[in-house]
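Can't paste images in this forum, so I'm doing it all in text. The chain is below; anyone willing to post the predicted structure tokens underneath?
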Amino acid sequence: MRSLTAKRCNPWIPFTRKYKKPVIVGVEILVNPKLDFGTFAVIPDNISLGIQAAEMILDAMDNNWQVETGMVASPRSVYKIINFRQAGHQFNISEENLQDVDKVLK
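Text version of the structure:
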């Protein structure tokens, strides 16, 4: 799996290393320090999404199954993961600045 992901990201890796830009991704595997690609991952929190969906269903039920068309609800909560090796080395992020990060990969 790792080699397949590395092959897919390969064109981007030289770019991110040359310009030293943080890379925000949507899956945890891409912030793996061994891959050295993503800096920060922001992933929807599935438990909070489930609660949010259940509340929307209950609201619809309370309104005789009438729902607003075109209504889009953003996720209330996300799970944040950082590649600390990359963030610390390239962007001088210190451990004191990681209180709001859910998972730190070293």
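The two ends are 20 Å apart (CA to CA). Residues 6 and 35 are 7 Å apart (CA to CA).
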